[in-house]
Design goal:
It contains five helices and eight strands; from the N terminus they run E-E-E-H-E-H-E-H-E-H-H-E-E. Helix 3 (about 125-145) links the parallel strand 5 and strand 6. It has helices at about 45-60, 95-110, 125-145, 155-160, 160-165, and strands at about 5-10, 25-30, 35-40, 80, 115-120, 145-150, 165-175, 180-185.
Amino acid sequence: SAIRLVRARHPLLGRGGDDRVIPLDLDLERGERSLLVSGPNAGGKTVLLKTVGLLTLMTHFGILPTLGEGSVIPLLDAIFTGIGDDQSIENDLSTFSARVEVLKEILEKASSRSMILLDEIGSGTDPSEGEALAGAVIDALTERGSLNIFTTHYAGLKTIAGQREGVVNGSLGFDPVRLEPTYRFE
């Protein structure tokens, strides 16, 4: 596997014995370089990204990660993230231009041994333009061979997995009866 997380838990969630935390099971095979994660708003997509990144960093720094037996964390040269909003009046950066700066740095520096975690890739601009930009970034990073996890609500990006080798879809569930997220990754 390129990465396998078994019963992964963000170390800050569930402290004090809260059993409502749903553990994450995620398995990307070696040929699967990009995972596109969709799901409901407030359904856990950003928590998934942060959990993967934090547990990977913990492992690299020799800190025992909150993972189950059988987990596999790859040896990486860098982890790049685009989570949150870095807009700045002082630096004349809108939400979109701040995100483009992050993408530019990633595309300049990431290698085949890097991990890239991008939340809501392509957002912050016209949806059709953002989706096109996101598709190009996904193509470039998948071709480069980095290990990538992207969250998205763009329907067009979800179809990339069936069209491009190395790209797979995943989602966080939603219970249509109770009308709430399940926080289970599939």
